Amino acid sequence: MRSKIKTIFIGTPDFGIPCLNALHDDNRFELVAVVTQPDKPCGRKMVLTPPPVKV
After folding, report:
1. Is residue 54 in some structural domain?
2. How many domains in the chain?
3. Domain range spanning residue 36?
4. CA gap 37, 51 in Å, rounded
């Protein structure tokens, strides 16, 4: 049996989500960490909003 490829995903925008999902669903990879930007204030009331990858 081969060992899984340890992987760190780095991304924030919406277009990174399909790639992250593909890595998560593939048994050949082991997701060790996901790195993304911190939550940012958004809108008039400056409500902290998480990036799409974090959600």
Report:
1. no
2. 1
3. 5-49
4. 7
